[in-house]
Amino acid sequence: MNNLSITGKTQLLGVIGHPVEHSLSPVMHNAAMAALGLDYVYLPFPIKPENLEVAMAGLAAINVVGFNVTIPHKQAIMPFLSEITPIAQAIGAVNTVSYQHEQWVGTNTDIEGFIAPLQTTYRQDWNQKMAVILGNGGAARAVVAGCQQLGVAQIHVVGRSWQKLQEFRNSWANLPEWEKLQINIWDDLGELIPQANLLVNTTPVGMYPLMNESPVSMGDMQKLSPGAIAYDLIYIPHTSQFLQQAKKQGAIAINGLEMLLQQGVAALKIWLQRETLPVDVMRQALRNHLKADCKAV
């Protein structure tokens, strides 16, 4: 952990959630502040759901520059914001808030986090590709929006409840090109996987401590094309069963650490109003922290 020098002029950033003590955001953000030599500190703020409104007033009163939002506040916070960006409205969730002109402004940087490696390291002509997204919860919404932004030709969301899947699809109905979005029940997975260029796990299946589980059966995963991209939003463990299975088929594996990093980078750019950040320092701080945490082994 970098040594931080707190002064009377230190600016405050943070993350709100309940619980929030396991958040890795302070690790990467405080590493960035130290590298930049900025008089900022990033703190975790544990806020119970019933205290959210009064907490917002308190954060404004102590001049917090901005903060991230995690479970369970990503949707609940929206009525307390003066402005919400169109992308956050489309997703129906806010993960980044900044204080601008004495008002709270909410946005969502999860999309930028998700698509970052797909725009750089694994760049492709996405308008010829098909994405299969496992799960239809809040994380899947950011992934769908990210796929739309990339220009993916076909987006298939797979879930277990047909009613919830229909509600999910209908919630996108007033967005352009929403006809690209298709819904499928889990039993369809065996037919979808052979066509998938991008297979994304947005479910918690396979996350610590249930690390021996995968959302996809071995039989279905064997249908994945070599060269396809398997993307797991999980980052503990570093290589989930889902990614291990995919790599055996010759797929490219991406875990959730880069999404965590890049959504944080996007948020920090908003708060600091600067485009150049020590991304490598932030990435290494996360890796070092996870290596040091016996639970990540």
Give a description of the structure.
The protein contains 11 helices and 12 strands. It has helices at 25-36, 52-61, 86-91, 110-119, 138-150, 162-170, 189-192, 218-221, 241-248, 257-272, 279-292, and strands at residues 11-17, 40-46, 66-69, 83-84, 96-100, 103-107, 130-134, 154-159, 181-185, 198-201, 229-232, 252-254. The strands form 2 sheets. It has a 6-stranded mixed β-sheet with strand order 2-1-3-5-6-4. Strands 9-8-7-10-11-12 form a 6-stranded parallel β-sheet, sandwiched between helices. Strand 10, helix 8 and strand 11 form a beta-alpha-beta unit.
DSSP strand tally: 12
Number of helices: 11
Mean pLDDT: 93
* Uncertain stretches: none
Distance between the termini: 19 Å
Structural category is alpha/beta
Radius of gyration: 19 Å
Described by strand count, sense and barrel closure, the largest sheet is: 6 strands, mixed
**Sheet with the most strands: spatial strand order:** 2-1-3-5-6-4
What order do the SSEs take from the amino end to the carboxyl end, as H and E? Answer: EHEHEEHEEHEHEHEHEHEHEHH
Pathway: Metabolic intermediate biosynthesis; chorismate biosynthesis; chorismate from D-erythrose 4-phosphate and phosphoenolpyruvate: step 4/7
Active site: 74
GO molecular function, one term: NADP binding
Enzyme class: oxidoreductase
